[in-house]
Every structure is written in C-alpha cells, then in structure tokens.
Amino acid sequence: MSLKTVQIDVTSDVICPFCPLGVKQLTTAIDKYKSTHPSAPEFNIRFLPYQLDPTLDEKPIQRKDHLARKFGAERVEPMEKAMIERFKTIGWTTDFSGPMSSSHLAHRLLSWASRRVPQNQFALSMDLFEGFHSNKHHTSDKQWLASLGVKHKMFANEQQALDWLHSDECDLEVRNAYKSAQQAGITGVPFFVFQDKYAASGAAGTEEFVSLLEEIIRRETAAAAKVAESQPESVTVEGAVC
C-alpha cells in the first residue's frame, strides 16, 4: 500500500534567516526523494505563524541596529558573514542593511492565503522570505504586501489588498496561532511537523531531511498496511432503505 500524501506543517517567522534555509533544504530533500522513489506521495506544505520578536511594531527600524541591541554590536558583522555563506548554499543573497519591523501583517497575509488560495501559500511564503532577507523589504510594508497579495491571486487589485491589510481580518486567528505554538512548546523556528506526529527543528541539512522523509514514509506506509489488513471484508446486503 502506497502513501498518498504527507502533510508538513512549518511553524516559521519571515524575519528568521534559518526559516528559508530550512524550507529550501526540505524542498531539495523532497525533490531528491522523488527522484529515487517513482511512487512517492504528494507533499503538502503549510506555513503556521510564529513571532521571534513580539516587541517589534509596524514602524521600520534598521536591522543592524536591532541586532546590535539584541546580540551586541561586536557580533553583528560575524553573524552577517556567516549568513551570507549559508544563503549561498540555497542560491540566495542576504543583506543586513535593510529595515525590519513586526512580521504580524505578513503572517496575516499567509493565513489568508491558507484559507483562500492554499495552493499559493508556499510561493507567497518564499516571496516574503526572499523579499525580506535579500531585497530589503520590511514585513509591515503594506504596499509591498499588497503587491504580493495580488500576485498570488488573493485580491483583484492592490487597493482591495490594502483595504484588507488595514482591516482586522485574520488578526485574532494569527494571534491565537502564536499562543498555540507556545503551548505546543515551540521555542524556536523553523519547526516542522510531519503527519501531525513527527517533529524536527531547525535547518538541519538536506541529507538529514532525506533520511527523515524515508523513515516517516516507511513508518506511515507500514502503519497504513497494518490497518488495511485488520479491516473485515465488506459484505453487501440489500434491504429496505428510506
């Protein structure tokens, strides 16, 4: 019995550099797995919200200044150099010289995508990651977010998207999701949950994700086969119906 679908929930924050790294490692691992397993299942990836820094608001501040206050000025340059090298492994650049702000609006947009156009949520998330980490957009920039909302078929035009961003749609939903992540014991991102039962955290590496996928699919396939074997044979009996 082959497994049809693997559900992967990724708890992440747009402003976290390890989140795009981990997600790209995961998708590369999925491609590698599929290349050697012709009957591979479909992989459904969904993004769930998390805030690394709830103290940030919509007013943009310089990313380097924020990191200096948080980690110490002497650590910012080594951190940036290390991240530049890490991002090269996924074919991206990263730039610490841009602004940053609260990621709440970006999470609202991702949650709305999950509800309205779930097939586009992954692409939207990757655009958000790249826009912040590589192209100096900040995550409370409503004009940028509106353009992405239109690009990914969530809104008919940018004015409609801006009106939505100025509303409170999905606000409570996202705030409750932050609480759910905390209650689940998630203290860092990215955090991956496969099939609602297998967890992995961080940008572990492509080969590690390949091994994890192999083990999860082996277990899930065996469990499904065991359930199927225990099912009684169906018997059809015709009788009265109403």
TrEMBL record:
Instruction: Please tell me the species this chain comes from.
Output: Kwoniella shandongensis
Which top-rank group of organisms is this from?
Eukaryota
Name the residues that span the membrane.
none
Protein name, as recorded? Uncharacterized protein
**InterPro entries named among the record's database cross-references:** DSBA-like_thioredoxin_dom, Thioredoxin-like_sf
Q: Which GO terms describe its molecular function?
A: oxidoreductase activity
